[in-house]
Amino acid sequence: MTPIQATNDFVVKFANVNGSGSASANELFARSILRMGVPVAPRNIFPSNIQGLPTWYEVRVNEAGYQGRRGGVDLMVAMNPQTWEKDVKEISPGGYLFYDNSKPLSESKFRTDIQIIGIPLTHICNATYSDPRQRQLFKNIIYVGALSALLDIDPAEIEKLFSEQFKGKEALLQSNIKALKLGRDYAFEHLTCPLGLRVKRANNVGNKVFLDGNSAAALGAVYGGASVCAWYPITPSSSVAEAFIKYCQKYRVDSATGKARYAIIQGEDELSSIGIAIGAGWNGARSFTATSGPGISLMTEFIGLAYFAEIPVVLINVQRGGPSTGMPTRTQQSDVLSCAYASHGDTKHVLLFPEDPKECFEMCAQALDLAERLQTPIFVMTDLDIGMNTRLCDPLEWDDTKGYDRGKVMTYEALEAGADFGRYNDIDGDGITYRTYPGTHPHHGAYFTRGTTKDRYARYSEAGPDYIENVTRLLRKFESAKKIVPAPKLLPAAHPTKLGALFYGSTSPAMIEALDLLAAQGIAVDALRVRAFPFADEIDRFITEHTGVFVIEQNRDAQLKSLLVNEGQINPERLISVLHFDGTPITARFIVDEISHHVAAHTVVAFKKVVS
Amino acid sequence: MTYLAKPKLHHPGLTKNAVGYTRRDYEGKISTLCAGCGHDSISAAIVQACWELDIQPHRVAKLSGIGCSSKTPDYFLGNSHGFNSVHGRMPSVLTGANLANRELIYLGVSGDGDSASIGLGQFAHSMRRGVNMVYIVENNGVYGLTKGQFSATADKGSKSKRGVINSDEPLDMIGMALLLGATYVARSFSGDKSQLVPLIKGAIEHKGAAFIDVVSPCIAFNNHAGSTKSYEYVRQHNEAVNRMDFIEGREEITADYAPGEVITVEQHDGRFLRLKKLSAEHDPTDRVRTMNYVQEHASRGEVVTGLLYIDPKAIDMHEHLNTVDTPLNQLDVEQLCPGASALEKINASLR
User: Fold this and answer.
1) Of B121, B322, B350, the CB nearest to A259
2) Which of A264, A279, A450 comes nearest B92 by C-beta?
3) A270-282 vs B90-100: helix axis angle to the nearest 10?
4) Which of A266, A273, B260, B294 is deepest in the core (most CB within 10 A)?
5) Surface of A (263-302) touching B: CB under 8 A
6) How far apart are the first and last CA of chain A?
7) Element (H, E) at A45
8) Domain assignment present for A462
9) Kind of pairing, strands B262-266 and B272-277?
């Protein structure tokens, strides 16, 4: 078998033991390639565990900048004996196996169609370090050093990253450089460097930034003016709140007094978290919670209250594999329906679907505006793939001239001037009514907020006409939402085509790549990225203009398709589901296979029809 | 329950308080609870306390959960914003509201069904956090709105209206509040307005989590022989430890009483609470001994009432969180948004 030859286009997968300190070494590896101007897309594949279980880190090196998971492994860095067999099996024929050969392994443990690269990491560590912890941590750096030699990565870039990381900590800096050199020296002395896989300096990173979706979402909440955050730890959303804490400590402390322009409460559960966020929203502060599927299930009663009593609140849902505890550390888009219709009774909620960290930032900030404009819960539907992986994306942007949209709030002056205040009185006809903040005026503007039915002046009423007026107004409000939520984005094919594809959220990078691959096969597909629910009319038109529309989703039950059929005037037969739901991020290969098989099958049918 | 509409015109001779309001200005809608319900007496006590303290009604936010007690915020302080939330979840909504605007007075009204069953967790954690609020549990030991099921505070051995004997241990809200870090803990009886009004006033003035357990007989479902939450039973077993006068001034008043008869407690704002002692052994500033005292008396079947515990130097949630003095809901983009130039630096750090 000829060894795989590839420059700036290959996949390296690290198999490690959770808690062994490999994460920072692996990220160092990824960043060093980035610094050489070559885009990378790393992904953590990790268990719900702190120490001991297997964990993987997959780095796709791709000069063209495709950020989706590719599938297949060209170089396996097998550092975990527990998963050896599976890891070795996963390597593509002609690929490479990098492993610690300190202990001899029988020939049967290897494959003959791959290249074997052994390096006595444990021996080198034991000979150099006496402290067991140092042995473990520097082992990771030593393998990064060896890999840099094998893949032709510029060591100066790694040393630069070290000096940034260990600024002012000279001893740490030197010991890391030493470990790196140990690995490099061994590789140059004993192995053939470089391999068929190599990194060549390019200029395709530009001014892009490298960050994870959860940090970006938190930053969006800071920029969007959230001053109250209530949360309960749950994978994969905890790092949203943790990043919010970090950014608030940096950007929201009054320099004169040292006091906080924010309040963050770690609730006792998801019920209290959403309750606190709703209480704050009711009282005029911008607030949010971050959670995942199980948390949404718990919050559902409160979501119904916020919908019906019309209270602004933002929920960042970092989706994971469901149902129940499901796959806490795997990714899915499987909360679309449970969020769109959360709560008993007739409800509909606004959902936003960010595609990457940049949109996590933008949509979280926008969600805070939308929540106050629409006086309703807004869901930011991110997922583990976006949330917990660092991704290369365009720089974050902010327009200082744009203030916050605080929505329809009746002021003291308006009340004093004798404005007729009816909390649920639709004077503008857009379904959105005026609210007052508690404590605004001594004699006017107070009202009673409740989950029960009421009339337009917020007075308790179970009268049918009052109920109907209220809930049909809420539908009107949902129509108003349609005009202000993020519009879908069209990715037209190079040639006119009757094939279409709808996709959303973290499917984006795989889809973009799949469209290119399909085009290369002669299959032209117009694609439309859905960015929000309620669905823009453009989505209906897109479906009507195409004879077959693929709906690409990362769930079993075609949830977005269900929502499209349920909410639009759409013939379900026009929609063809492409569903990926094993918990790993969807790949371009998967999408291409599904679509090309479908196209081929239909072409065959058409041909048969012609000859019969 | 009354079907007579309240007259809108007030008698011109009604006494006004220092902020220019008559007592009627603190009333709300007509109660839809049963005639004679203890809860209505508590609403009246809240009205009285707010009027006497010269609080502007719109500076109060009143929040509740679900149940008979949780309906009452509609029946007092009609010019205050109210929030009738979901069952057992008033504490979290109140906590969030309080975070958004530290300048309002937060009054949480709940019942034993709302706070001792579904809402037990939220009750507990709001005490732990030291939310600056008055948390009143209108405690009747029964589910009134669903017609007479036992609640979690019903005493073991007490009898329901249908004749069922309760075999479960009661939840002791006072004991829990003390344990969980409430810094103002009182118990009273809806039928004893002279005791209840000063206790509510003290709770409003207290800075921190103030909890008042008010035994409030359910006239429809828990006022019969064999009930331990009936008017008759509570009157017979009420053991008041002190009577409170709320003193507005900042000067300590020591006259009129023999030493040992009166306790004066300095509040966070320099004002004083005066307690006339009725029990020689009880010291309301000693939390651990208060827990023992309450339990000992409970084991004798006595319902201890009065101001049971106060930490006058309590620190509230906002102090724990070190939030700015300006209410968070008044901060605008200038105070909240780091701006484009800071974002450029963040971008640079992510390359």
Assistant:
1) B322
2) A279
3) 50
4) A273
5) 263-265, 267-269, 271-287, 301-302
6) 46
7) strand A40-45
8) yes
9) antiparallel
Which residue type does A109 have? K
Instruction: Give the pLDDT score at A562.
Output: 97
Do A506 and A465 share a structural domain? no
Residues in chain A, total:
612
Taking the model in full, what pTM does it have?
0.96
Cβ proximity of A363 and A354 under 8 Å = yes
In a shared domain, residues A454 and A525: no
Specify the 3-state DSSP secondary structure of A590.
Answer: helix
By the 8 A CB rule, do A529 and A508 touch?
Answer: yes
Could you give the ipTM of this predicted complex?
A: 0.95
Cβ pairs bridging A and B (under 8 Å): 222
Q: Is A488 helix (H, G, I), strand (E, B) or coil?
A: coil
Residues B116 and B93: beta-carbon distance below 8 Å: no
B267 pLDDT band, cuts 50/70/90, is: confident
Q: What domain range is A50 assigned to? A: 6-198
What are the chain B neighbours of A398 within 8 Å (beta carbons)? Answer: 337, 339-340, 343
Do residues A599 and A466 both lie within one domain? no
CATH class label, B23-321: alpha beta
pLDDT digits (tens, 9 = 90+) for A338-391: 999 999 999 999 999 999 999 999 999 999 999 999 999 999 999 999 999 999
Between chains, do B58 and A439 touch, taking CB under 8 Å as contact? Answer: yes
Are A508 and A545 contained in the same domain?
Answer: yes
Of B79, B95, B328, the CB nearest to A443: B79
Q: Please, which residues bridge with residue A321 across strands?
A: A327
One domain for residues A302 and A364 = yes
In a domain, A331, yes or no: yes
Same domain? A287 vs A376: yes
With an 8 Å Cβ cutoff, are B336 and A261 in contact?
yes
**Number of structural domains, chain A?**
4
Distance from CA of A424 to the nearest CA of B (A): 15
Residue A203 forms part of a structural domain: no
- Contact by Cβ (8 Å): A229, A200: no
- What's the DSSP call for residue A260? B
| A607 Cβ under 8 Å from any chain B Cβ | no
**Which of the listed residues A198, A225, A244 is the one where a domain comes to its end?**
A198
| Mutation choice for A interface testing from B56, B71, B77, B86 by most A CBs within 10 A | B86
Residues A309 and A242 sit within 8 Å (Cβ to Cβ): no
- Say yes or no for a CB contact (<8 Å) between A210 and B339: no
Q: Which residues pair with A288 in a beta bridge?
A: A229, A314
| Domain limit, last residue, from A177, A198, A219 | A198
User: How many alpha carbons fall within 13 Å on the CB side of residue A392?
Assistant: 27
User: Could you read off the pLDDT of A539-587 as tens digits, one per residue?
Assistant: 999 999 999 999 999 999 999 999 999 999 899 999 999 999 999 999 9
The torsion defined by the Cα of B326, B329, B333 and B335, in degrees rounded to 10, comes to: 20
Same domain, A251 and A379: yes
Residue A407 maps to a domain: no
Q: Which of A273, A282, A404 sits opposite B333 (nearest CB)?
A: A404
Please tell me whether residues A360 and A496 are part of one structural domain: no
Owner of token pair 């006239």? B219
Query: Domain spans of chain B?
Result: 23-321
